[in-house]
Design a protein that fits this description.
469 residues; globular; 46% helix; alpha/beta
Length: 469
């Protein structure tokens, strides 16, 4: 489509970074003449189905602030034509973010001093003058695409974060959103958050999701820790060469523990910043001291058990994908189910992501005029041996409520390439899948009854991990 090329062209050629080979095209963007804003009419930009028409329609739409925000507002209220139009704009900004990431991570660019490999997003002030939620949404999807591609191509996380923060913070620095934020606008609060170093980014790689979940598990661990006072903590410093009894010097887990202990010691003593990635849970204001070795081993064993269980549930669901619709147990009622794991979701007004263990969408329900059907899964592998029934029930209720909050309601898919990327969709059903290894048949019945009595709308299942061959 020619409109796509015309809109992508100023976006991808307006880099201010020297050495990208794009400077000769910058004047096209920076000297765009002002545009008038006639009374709004969809006919100025698209046909009755929402397909953009005319060579300049997309450029005119993004440059006319009130018209752009009108289309975005209509799309958020479910107007099909508006959703089609805005999705085309999002696709273009995604493509441009990918192109820019390729440019600034090319061998030609990476050979230059570091500043030459940072994009200058200020050209968007001319091309995209609006400071409303629709424009910010386009900046966000552009930053998301840039983040994912730049990370894959080896750009350092700190540079990615600073680049995307600059992209999202441009309108804030100019002071255009402060009034809206004071009035409680969720979009404005999310934008202002960018100036504090937080970014709205896409679902990260599997390895980074695993890292973020391990950080959550460590933070939530109730195992014994060393004293928090730096002076008292230093005398417990572990050594790679002096492992505890029963552990060899080359033990992989011991090496990980020593590195973890040193990192946490630096955080507690203020000698180094937390090393969590941008998407990882933010550490508390006062970092916790490190777990003791035995507690760390327990935490890692629990984490590994949970990871193995998640993999087994994923395999079970993938087998269901191959079954006829009427035979499926968990994915029943889906005509064309698609399964993704560790997919990042964002809730309205939030600047952080949540990662359901599995996310399914019925692709037969995606399209204009259709109500999309998505379902999320939370996998739990507790070792309930030795627990009282009362404590088990309390844990189950807590797990169910957590699943509702983290994976239910209205969510926005943040993984580029997913058919629902960037869309706000209601979760039709939240599933909670338990490892039944330490649960008796009677206890499983009582757990289902407990959730019913608490009126928690989460569908519960029990799964048995088959023994390793």
């Amino acid at each position: 489509m020619r409109w796509l090329r015309l809109l992508a062209l100023p976006l991808v050629l307006a880099l201010a970074a020297p050495g990208t080979g794009c400077t000769e095209d910058e004047p096209y963007v920076r000297t765009l003449p002002p545009v008038d804003e006639p009374p709004f009419d969809y006919g100025l930009y698209c046909d009755a189905q929402g397909q953009l028409v005319g060579e300049d329609s997309a450029v005119l739409l993004v440059r006319r602030s009130s018209h752009l925000e009108r289309v975005y507002a209509d799309s958020q209220h479910g107007e099909t034509r508006a959703q089609v139009v805005f999705r085309q704009l999002e696709d273009t900004f995604v493509s441009s973010g990918l192109y820019i990431a390729d440019e600034v991570t090319s061998p030609r660019c990476l050979a230059l001093p570091l500043p030459g490999c940072k994009p200058d997003w200020s050209f968007l002030d001319t091309l995209l003058p609006s400071h409303g939620p629709g424009a910010q949404r386009l900046r966000e999807v552009m930053g998301t695409a840039f983040t994912e591609r730049a990370r894959v191509r080896g750009m350092r996380n700190a540079l990615i974060t600073s680049s995307v923060s600059a992209l999202l913070a441009i309108t804030v620095v100019k002071g255009q959103l402060k009034g809206a934020a004071a009035e409680g606008s969720a979009e404005a609060r999310a934008t202002l958050a960018a100036t504090e170093g937080r970014t709205l980014v896409a679902a990260t790689t599997e390895a980074e999701v695993l890292e973020a979940r391990l950080a959550e598990a460590e933070a939530a661990s109730t195992e014994a820790r060393y004293p928090a006072e730096p002076s008292g903590l230093a005398r417990f410093r572990p050594s790679l060469q002096s492992p505890p009894t029963g552990v060899t010097a080359g033990d992989t887990l011991w090496g990980e523990y020593v590195a973890y202990w040193e990192q946490r010691y630096a955080e507690v003593t203020g000698q180094g910043p937390p090393s969590a990635r941008p998407n990882a849970p933010k550490p508390p204001l006062k970092p916790k001291p490190p777990l003791k070795w035995e507690g760390y081993r327990v935490m890692r064993a629990d984490f590994r058990r949970g990871t193995v269980f998640q993999g087994s549930v994923g395999q079970m669901l993938r087998r269901e994908l191959e079954l006829p619709e009427m035979v499926r147990r968990l994915l029943r009622g889906m005509r064309k189910p698609r399964l993704d794991e560790n997919l990042g979701l964002k809730h309205p007004g939030s600047t952080s992501l949540t990662y359901p263990d599995q996310f399914t969408v019925d692709e037969a329900t995606i399209g204009p005029g259709l109500r999309v059907r998505v379902e999320t899964f939370s996998n739990k592998s507790h070792d309930f041996r030795g627990w009282s029934e009362e404590d088990i029930f309390k844990q189950v209720v807590a797990d169910a409520k957590e699943a509702q909050v983290k994976y239910g309601g209205i969510v926005q898919v943040r993984r580029p390439g997913h058919p629902l990327f960037g869309q706000n969709v209601p979760v039709s059903r939240v599933h909670l899948v338990y490892d039944d290894q330490t649960l008796t048949p009677r206890l499983k019945q009582e757990i289902v009854k407990e959730l019913d009595e608490n009126k928690i709308k989460v569908e519960i299942h029990f799964h048995h991990v088959p023994p390793a061959p």
